[in-house]
Design the sequence.
């Protein structure tokens, strides 16, 4: 009897109308995409079964590029065209990264955002590089579901400021993604952990990734995830541990000259490998082949590595203490410390947390995957796929205070840091001079008291104020922060109702014109991308058919005459030869022809299988089976 798929009223969306939404962890070292499948969140693998995608993009001649493992493998030989750790550059100017980032690139301080000068592709912004990674993840998801995506939740470090968040949204737009929400990484981890473990209580999320560090304190209760406080450092991550180890080797070997980009990439790759080995081993070797038959090696013990990098661990604990203080929570009131990020595998990181909290951190979920899984859960809910009663509420916070410049270059904070978002707050200001008919508003972000020490986000003007004596006008300025942590500001003169407003587009983000230009460039390359994709798909289908027919012929050669066997063998050889070429249409035609030619053989195999299955059975016994 056939079954109809029927949903009870209120039991969730029509299963046939389910929207495909994913969670994306855009990481410094690796990136992942996850989705709800069969009712559970899971990370989506590539064709080789790998869920991690190295956050690496290599630009090649002719406008081509390699992304992921292929790009990473070429980092040492082609470092100037292979971009890694680009997340650390999102929304940054040259002044922001000077002396902080030890990356083997030549930077250009373009208006708004730093750019990376590549020999083969010219200048590339961090937004463009990140868009390549996001597009690869989008394609992986669409291949998995054989459908277009409704949207994505993309995670960002909790301590990303407005400029960095806007840069992330720009990259997603460029990659063709509909951003349902930007979600703080620690909050995503808490969603995954809380829903998976059905836990309630107060948790500290310790997120040490490849390039950023975040700590958030959340209270989980009856499906409500309330962020109490957040702190962190967008210039601290696993890359810095690699750099400390690389510097130790450089100094020990007595090298005096600055390394070439290739030498620097080789040294950092060797240091990263040694760091990973020291997670499970007592000693590791940093070995670098400099070329020309000359190489260097250095044995490093876990104790040495701990001593070298303990200052970095201490920096994370400083942020931990600040978050505890802001949340008004004592260490013994924390029910669990959740580890996020691959760098949390380092033993001395876990030892430091054990010593500080008096209990071992919770490490039973994969720290590389937990953020993407939490984002997938949130994406599924925002897409409207959750069943009634399964919804959860996220009460996130803004990491840095938002305010206005006032006379004397001072900052008047309108929304203090750790305010729950979404949020709207207003404050009244007045004019400084008699007859003043306009007011310039300067929006800033940061914790310092002087504008010069904070980050400028936007400037706009309120014009048409009725002339009054100084101090008589009443200018009401309203700040609104949405669920993504992005800001809009409006100003109204209350007596005349004159109004001006702005959706804050940070001066470090890309302008709409630049986004449009990049999209046009992406569209221009769409044809070649589609051809490459069609060729790959045709090769996969052809290879699968060749393998299946080969097995069938080997098993049932007796069902073919010599002439039929020779004809099939010839077509198989022809198709195999075509798969080595680049004409996807020819491969498709040959695949279809081979399918047609083998139809009679497939029918004979089916008839033989049915006869063997029915041999020796009576009609009555067959009717009972049916």
Sequence:
């Amino acid at each position: 009897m056939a079954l109809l798929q029927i949903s009870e009223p209120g039991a969730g969306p029509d299963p046939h109308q389910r929207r495909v939404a994913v969670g994306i962890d855009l990481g410094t070292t690796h990136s992942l995409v996850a989705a709800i499948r069969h009712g559970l969140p899971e990370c989506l693998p590539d064709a080789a079964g790998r869920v991690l995608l190295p956050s690496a993009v290599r630009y090649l001649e002719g406008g081509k590029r390699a992304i992921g493992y292929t790009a990473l493998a070429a980092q040492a030989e082609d470092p100037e065209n292979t971009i890694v750790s680009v997340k650390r550059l999102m929304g940054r100017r040259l002044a922001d990264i000077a002396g902080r980032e030890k990356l083997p690139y030549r930077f250009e301080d373009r208006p708004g955002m730093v750019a990376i000068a590549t020999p083969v592709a010219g200048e590339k912004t961090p937004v463009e590089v990140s868009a390549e990674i996001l597009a690869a993840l989008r394609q992986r998801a669409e291949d998995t579901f054989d459908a277009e995506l409704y949207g994505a939740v993309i995670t960002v470090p909790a301590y990303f400021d407005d400029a960095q968040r806007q840069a992330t949204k720009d990259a997603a737009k460029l990659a063709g993604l509909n951003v349902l929400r930007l979600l703080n990484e620690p909050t995503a981890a808490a969603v995954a952990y809380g829903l998976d473990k059905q836990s309630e209580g107060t948790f500290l999320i310790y997120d040490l990734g490849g390039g950023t560090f975040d700590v958030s304190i959340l209270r989980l209760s009856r499906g409500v995830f309330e962020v109490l406080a957040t702190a962190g450092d967008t210039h601290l991550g696993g890359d810095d541990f690699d750099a400390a180890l690389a510097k130790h080797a450089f100094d020990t070997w007595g090298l005096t000259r600055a390394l070439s980009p290739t030498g620097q990439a080789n040294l950092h790759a060797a240091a990263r490998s040694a760091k990973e080995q020291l997670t499970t081993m007592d000693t590791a070797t940093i070995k670098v082949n400099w070329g020309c038959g000359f190489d260097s090696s250095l044995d490093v013990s876990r104790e040495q590595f701990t001593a070298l990098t303990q200052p970095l661990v201490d920096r994370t604990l400083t942020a931990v203490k600040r978050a505890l203080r802001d949340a008004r929570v004592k260490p013994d009131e924390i029910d669990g410390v959740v580890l996020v990020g691959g760098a949390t595998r380092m033993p001395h990181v876990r030892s430091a947390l054990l010593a500080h909290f008096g209990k071992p951190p919770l490490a039973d979920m994969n720290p590389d995957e937990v953020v993407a899984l939490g984002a997938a859960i949130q994406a599924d809910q925002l897409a409207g796929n959750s069943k009634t009663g399964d919804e959860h509420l996220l009460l996130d916070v803004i990491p840095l205070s938002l305010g206005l410049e006032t006379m004397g270059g001072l900052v008047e904070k309108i929304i203090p840091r750790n305010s729950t978002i979404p949020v709207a707050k207003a404050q009244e200001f007045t004019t400084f001079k008699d007859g003043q008919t306009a007011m310039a508003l300067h929006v800033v972000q940061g914790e310092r008291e002087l504008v010069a020490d904070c980050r400028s986000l936007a400037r706009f003007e309120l014009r048409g104020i009725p002339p009054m004596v100084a101090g008589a006008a009443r200018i009401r300025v309203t700040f609104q922060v949405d669920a993504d942590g992005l800001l809009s500001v409006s100003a109204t003169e209350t007596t005349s109702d004159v109004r001006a407003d702005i959706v804050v587009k940070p001066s470090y983000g890309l302008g709409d014109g630049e986004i449009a230009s990049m999209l046009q460039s992406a569209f221009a390359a769409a044809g070649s991308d589609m051809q490459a994709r069609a060729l790959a798909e045709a090769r996969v289908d052809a290879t699968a058919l060749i393998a299946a027919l080969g097995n069938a012929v080997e098993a049932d050669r007796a069902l073919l005459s010599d002439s039929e066997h020779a004809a099939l063998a010839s077509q198989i050889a022809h198709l195999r030869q075509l798969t080595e070429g680049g004409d996807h249409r020819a491969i498709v035609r040959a695949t279809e022809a081979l399918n047609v030619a083998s139809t009679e053989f497939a029918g004979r195999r089916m008839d033989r299988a049915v006869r063997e299955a029915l041999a020796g059975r009576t009609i009555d016994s067959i009717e009972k089976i049916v």
Observations:
- The first strand starts at residue 21 and ends at 25.
